[in-house]
Write a structure and sequence with these properties.
Length: 123
């Protein structure tokens, strides 16, 4: 991903609820996770860009990256399911279920990490 696209992604992540980042078990990389009604889209970034992403931090993890085609399809479906707001009454429950079933388990049994993640979005 080039620098311009990385900056655009960082800006987008600041506006979307439930986005997270986690250091990768692969050296010098981290993962950005974006929950959508269809599941979590993940992107791998170089650790030098960590500070650009102003989102909650989850515990370090192995990456579970989708193929580009799968990620594009999830993004397309997310956009098409939305009106002028990405999160709305139509898809909020689906996104909350993705957070509950796919994101919070990434914290394993670390209830403090789970609380910090949820607290970040309940300000």
């Amino acid at each position: 991903m080039d620098n311009q696209m990385l900056l655009i992604l960082a800006l987008l992540c600041m506006r979307l609820p439930y986005v997270w980042k986690a250091k990768s078990l692969t050296p010098n990389l981290f993962v950005i996770g974006i929950p959508t009604p269809g599941g979590v889209i993940t992107y791998q970034c170089g650790l030098e860009y960590w500070s650009l992403f102003k989102v909650p931090v989850l515990p370090p993890m192995e990456e579970k990256l989708q193929s580009t085609a799968d990620a594009i399809k999830m993004l397309e479906n997310y956009i098409m399911s939305s009106d002028i707001q990405l999160i709305n009454s139509t898809n909020l429950e689906q996104i909350e279920n993705v957070v509950k079933n796919e994101v919070l388990p990434l914290c394993k049994d670390d209830t403090i990490a789970q609380a910090a993640y949820i607290g970040f979005y309940n300000k």
